[in-house]
Design a protein that fits this description.
The structure holds two protein chains of two kinds. By secondary structure, chain A is an alpha/beta fold. Chain A contains eleven helices and 13 strands. The chains are: A alpha/beta, B mainly alpha. The complex binds adenosine-5'-diphosphate and magnesium ion.
């Protein structure tokens, strides 16, 4: 059974559809990414999964339960780190962990959790005095303290410096290694590419694509880019005739082509046949970044 | 104990946090009794006065001090805290747990109501010990009037929390309402000393009705049912309004 099932989810605000027919399923043990530009409807979608918002239409199930009708039982198996929330300013880290642990029937021991999240030195610090990164780590701890089967992490690494972000990625991998399914909302490609087993790309309330990171890259038109400065001018007609070519760019004597592996091979053959040398030859894969731009532009 | 609206862990936490608010502690717990002590230190306030039905002004000010803590708590304390909890997403964060955010609302009411009762008890005790003000001669009636007044103040606080989108607005409405409320409770002029018509008008407000009910019970009579009915009616009305308009986010 899938841990999360979302079928044709819809939600409008003031007559404007914000989530417009989103469907996906998340399997046990997966890190499932929800990727999309700001305002795409990611938070609305995952907050419907967490039972924090009531869908206008569609079906949401978490471990087979309806998050609205069965709020308490869903909240017991689903831990959430929300995009915008705080704690009481004068509540200390220890008190927050103890309080939230008391909310759950079978909580995790919060001490090792605090240790793992580097919160141990600041157990007596009040929430208002924590740095941004420390607050984020506390919210991750609170999402995990109920020993959930699923965690929802909404833009967890936004606002963190690159080092803290990398540490957080390790943490997310550890969470999954501990058997917890992760629903990860992000707008960082690198993060999604690095962590997620599968990604739903959301654009203006719809799923623009749903695939593995490699699958998403493969879908994009120019998956491989080859660029070089030829020792002698090349016939543009020859270039345009290359197989599986997606684009040609001739600027300042430099040739930039995008296509597939087959295009790369044909370029090498062409160079050999015309006895042209390629200076500063670079072959690069498109990143999820490019694939993402492709996906969200074509729906524009 | 754990229900949707009452959770002892939340209650314990809110009690602990309340003790970390020196402002709230001072204005709710200490200020009313301090005012009583200052007024009671004026010699003329300790002499019988015909405009107070032959009571000494200090006698008349004990019920005023009793109402002062719950007035401040209901109009300034609780609305500020609850509006802040909503504004900062604290209520939302709690919605994502098996405990409903209503538990936080209840905890605030219990803490605030408890502090108001503590403040009242302190005023009565200091009045008795320092100024020889006799204890209420109809203690049950006094307690009943006090409890109804606390409920009215809490429901008023809940309405203010429901209507204020930000803590700034809650602060502004709270201070604007505080002075009329303190006037009705008799801070400037105890109800016994008010002209008849004024006293009657004030008797329709929650704090004015509470002041008159407390005075009657202090003098040994059972409080007039009309005053108690005014308190119950306000509580019902305000509670209905609060539950109609309160938003968790
Ligand atoms: N409670 C709300 N009321 C009105 N509009 C909302 C509300 N929540 C979200 N929106 C709007 O819905 C759109 C999608 O928001 P959101 O789901 O937060 O997007 P994302 O998380 O992808 O950035 C935004 O345009 C936002 O302004
Ligand atoms: Mg968002």
């Amino acid at each position: 059974m899938s841990v999360i099932e979302v079928t044709d989810l819809r939600k409008s605000y003031g007559g404007r559809p914000v989530v417009d027919g989103v469907s996906f399923t998340v399997e046990e043990g997966e890190i499932f990414g929800v990727l999309g530009p700001n305002g795409a409807g990611k938070t609305t979608t995952v907050e419907c999964v967490g039972g924090l918002r009531v869908p206008d239409a569609g079906r949401v199930r978490v471990t087979g339960l309806d998050p609205v009708a069965d709020h308490r039982r869903v909240a017991e198996v689903l831990g959430a780190q929300l995009q915008r929330s705080e704690l009481q300013p004068k509540l200390t880290v220890r008190e927050a962990l103890e309080l939230y642990a008391a909310f759950y029937p079978r909580p995790a021991d919060w001490r090792p959790l605090a240790e793992r999240l580097d919160l141990a030195p600041m157990l007596d610090t009040r929430f208002a005095r924590l740095s941004g990164g420390q607050k984020q780590r506390l919210f991750v701890a609170l999402a995990l303290v109920g020993a959930p089967r699923v965690v929802v992490l909404d833009e967890l690494t936004t606002g963190l410096d690159p080092r803290a972000r990398r540490e957080t990625w390790q943490l997310i991998e550890d969470i999954r290694a501990g058997g917890v399914t992760v629903l990860l909302v992000t707008h960082f490609m690198e993060e999604a590419q690095r962590l997620c087993d599968r990604i739903a790309v959301i654009d203006r309330g719809r799923v623009a694509a749903l695939d593995t990171p490699a699958g998403l890259i493969r879908r994009s038109a120019g998956a491989t880019v080859i660029s070089f400065t030829p020792s002698a001018p090349l016939d543009e007609a020859d270039l345009r005739a290359l197989p599986q070519l997606a684009s040609v760019d001739l600027k300042d004597a430099r040739v930039t082509l995008s296509g597939t592996d087959e295009t790369v091979n044909a370029v090498i053959t062409l160079l050999a046949r015309t006895r042209v040398t390629a200076h500063q030859l670079r072959v690069t894969d498109t990143t999820l970044d490019d694939a993402f731009l492709d996906l969200t532009e074509t729906t524009a | 104990m754990k229900t949707d609206v009452l959770d002892t862990a939340v209650l314990r936490t809110e009690l602990r946090l309340f003790r970390r608010e020196p402002g709230a502690l001072f204005w709710m717990l200490a200020f009313p009794t301090l005012l009583l002590v200052i007024l009671g230190s004026i010699p003329s306030f300790r002499e019988a006065d015909p405009s107070f039905d032959g009571l000494r002004p200090v006698d008349a000010y004990v019920p005023v001090a009793v109402l002062l803590g719950l007035t401040v708590g209901g109009l300034q304390g609780m609305p500020q805290v609850l509006t802040g909890y909503r504004e900062r997403g604290i209520l939302r964060r709690m919605s994502a747990t098996p405990v409903r955010p209503a538990a936080l609302l209840t905890a605030q009411m219990v803490v605030c109501g408890g502090a108001a009762l503590g403040s009242a008890l302190l005023a009565v005790a200091v009045g008795r010990l320092a100024f020889d003000v006799s204890l209420p001669e109809q203690p049950l009636g006094y307690l009943l009037a006090l409890l109804l007044a606390v409920l009215a103040a809490l429901s008023l606080g809940a309405v203010l929390s429901a209507l204020s989108r930000t803590t700034k607005i809650a602060g502004a409405i709270g201070s604007a309402a505080l002075f009329p409320a303190m006037f009705c409770a008799g801070v400037w002029l105890p109800v016994q000393a008010m002209p008849d018509l004024l006293a009657r008008i004030v008797g329709w407000t929650p704090f004015g009705a509470a002041a008159q009910a407390l005075n009657e019970a202090a003098a040994g009579d059972w409080p007039d049912w009309s005053h108690l009915a005014v308190l119950v009616a306000w509580t019902a009305l305000l509670t209905a309004a609060a539950s109609r308009w309160f938003r968790w986010e």
